[in-house]
Amino acid sequence: MSIIFPLIVFSASLVAAESPGAESLVWDRIYFGDAHSEALHDVRSAPWASDTTTGGLGEPCRRILPPENPTWTTKDSLVFTIKVHPERVNYLTFKFWGGDVPRNHLILYIDGKQLGYRHLGDYDILAHPEKDAPCPGQFYFVTTALPESVTSGKESLTFEIRMTGWIWRYGQNFEIFQREIEGPSHGIYAAYTHAAPFFEPTGEKEGAMVRNPPTRTAPGEEVLVEVKKRVDRELVRILRLTRATTQQEIEFFARGVETKWTSVYQNSRLVEMLVESFDAFVEAWRQNPQVATNDPRQYNGDWFGVAPLAEALCIAHRKEGESLQKLMDAPLTLPDGTPSTRRHVWGDLLSASLQFLTTHRRPYTNQTMIIDWNIYRVNQALRVVDASRALPEDHARRYLYESLGLAPWLGSETSDGPEKPMGESYRVFSPKGLSRELGYVGNYGEILDWACLIYAACPDEEIRRQIIRLESARSWFRVPSVDAEGNRAMRLLQSIGWRDVGICGSVLYASRTGKEGDALAVSCVTRTPESLAAAKQMLRDNQYFLQVQKLLGEGGLRVSNVLLKIPEQYDFIKSELAALEHSDSQPPRGLPTSVGSPDFVFSDETTGVVALKNGDELLYVSLYWRANFGINFLSKIHYITPERQQVAVVRNRTEFSPGGCEYVRENRTNFAFRPDYGIHYPEKIDSLHAGERLPIARVPESIVDFRPGRESVYAGFGSFYELHFGKYFIVMNTTSDQTFATDLPQPGQDLATGTRSPRTRVEIPPQTTRVWVLDHELKVE
């Protein structure tokens, strides 16, 4: 059964406001920094709390000032009053200059209650800190739907804006989580209330996207010299140690021994150092059994077990297998006097780690990828040490297949078999290649580095083909931009991501450069024309060596492990690109969103996301948006044009199969998706959203432990979504067995097929998304 839940209480008024030919309305507008406009809207602020200044394109704006004594929040607010409509949906939009780099949070309050959540809420706060300027040369507009419970029956609302410092999401107490304010806020130029989600101001100055930005001139290949120097320093340091190495140290050294350009290539001491380290680790394990499952010297130790040690063992066995086998057969006497062998006690350690990892798998995509990669590595070492205690190869490989979406994810092992917490058919990747966490994720979804590590451990052709699919899916989410210095670059589109904050994504082409891999790693694995074109584009824009240089600035063996591979990977890509230049094929010019590339519509009906290019416009939509606990009728949009950008949380129409229960929003202001645990703010702030009731969609019967308030990929996932944004009309059928019908509000052109459709009723088959560009754009102004 499928039902349509009312979009808003006053649905008739909403339909009138968005019907073809109807007047699109702006209820009110404030121009901050303009004395007349501020007086009309009762703008209030203490002289020490904010100031006015001249900002982008010479326009006035207002900034919130930091407190005199450093602290995490401003005590005084910027207050204003603005008109709303008492019986229609209301959108609130703010105007910012894209060349500013926000360093703090801006949060809205109504009657002392907070609008939105500080971290990862469906209703977002007004502004987050950014890495770089979001869109130099342009204004951008941040829009949010106001809850009807706030606007119903009212003709105006009084808002407060407060500023707080940035937050570190993994902080376990207030002092670590919430940081102090850094300087004044970025400029606040204007605020508007209006009827429709799409917003386009008229009669105001407009900027322009940076056209033909320059190409970065430095750094260049000289960075690779520094890479080799750093890696060799680390390898020599480990070689000269007079103590047993840590897991990370022996793994790194072993990788160096099999890398031709290093000074320790084929070094004969590898086996000796491995035995010493393995014996020391076994002794530490005897003293503390948790060392095998959560080594305190290994980051995320409970995800790795003894996998780095196991990796080093496998490398040593490839190099000097015969001598290692003899050393493992050496007799030992256990502390209780029992005779044993090194092989037996090493096998005990590896078995303990393997048992822990297989019984502690995690459902989030990147986390299960990491754990399952380590399961496989530990099992490979156990096959060397004592094959009778290892998992069969097809069993160990099954974990890798599950973590890459090639097989249903069955969860942790129990005495009765896999626990199947997500049922028997749930996969951690969509069929089109996006990770499910729960919907689309930006930076958190950049898992190609981990996928390449899995392939390195298990060079299976089916795994490689899946990585090609994953890389293709991620490629739609890179957008033309500039780097921090204004040079040509592509950036990750993260603004509609479930696990992302802020607008400005990292510079990114094929795969990311970070602590697990570098930007060329995935192209070395997939070697497709599309992947090589992305690599070539990054090299042509000269962004690659800057990423490597930044990585050089970070410490630790985790980074050095990545640096170790870079020289060989770069040489390989250069040779592949040279071969491509001399072939008869015509590879793509670059990434799909590059200037001059063909129009496209990409949709993923499993994660509820749409990406499209229409001429020089880009539109990204998470139709399924942070609905962790129930159907919230909200979508997140990022609209990019040459003149401006708009980021918006908007209402949609959602159809869904009812689950017969509902979720009541809790009184939380920090994390929308979980309690705050040890993070206790000095002042108690109530949420404007507390008490709202969200219907819960039907959860499969196989999910036996679901209850209202527990996060679920099913609880807030609709069967059918419909969204009207300006000239774009988007519908998505997420089901595999239902057909939905909807009314096209006016004639338009199907963007994917180019065919025209009259104003009519259309049927949407299962697993189908359609986007129309309507003949008449429904603007607010």
What's a concise summary of this model?
This protein is of the alpha+beta class and 781 residues long.
Sheet with most strands: strand arrangement: 2-11-6-9-23-22-21-20-19
Instruction: Provide the helix percentage.
Output: 25-40%
Main β-sheet: number of strands, strand sense, barrel status? Answer: 9 strands, mixed
Rg for CA atoms = 28 Å
Strand percentage lies at 15-25%
pLDDT average, as an integer?
94
What is the tally of helical segments?
Answer: 18
Total strand segments: 33
> How far apart, in Å, are the first and last alpha carbons?
40 Å
What does this structure look like?
This protein is an alpha+beta fold. Helix content is 28%, strand content 21%. The strands form nine sheets. Strands 2-11-6-9-23-22-21-20-19 form a nine-stranded mixed sheet. β3 (50-54) and β4 form a beta hairpin. The longest helix is centred in the last third of the chain and has 25 residues, at 557-581. The radius of gyration is 28 Å and the shape is globular. The two termini are 40 Å apart. Residues 1-23 have low confidence and may be disordered.
Features of this protein?
781 residues, alpha+beta, nine-stranded mixed sheet, seven-stranded antiparallel sheet, 18 helices, 33 strands, 21% strand, disordered N terminus
Layout of SSEs?
Layout: E1 3-4, H1 11-18, E2 26-31, H2 35-40, E3 50-54, E4 60-64, E5 78-83, E6 91-97, E7 105-110, E8 113-115, E9 139-145, H3 148-151, E10 156-164, H4 174-177, E11 190-194, H5 222-239, H6 247-257, H7 270-287, H8 301-304, H9 307-328, E12 331-333, E13 339-341, H10 342-358, H11 365-386, H12 393-403, E14 413-414, E15 417-418, H13 448-457, H14 461-475, E16 478-482, E17 488-493, E18 504-507, H15 521-526, H16 529-540, H17 544-552, H18 557-581, E19 600-604, E20 609-614, E21 617-622, E22 634-640, E23 644-651, E24 653-656, E25 658-664, E26 693-697, E27 720-725, E28 728-733, E29 740-743, E30 748-750, E31 756-757, E32 761-764, E33 768-774
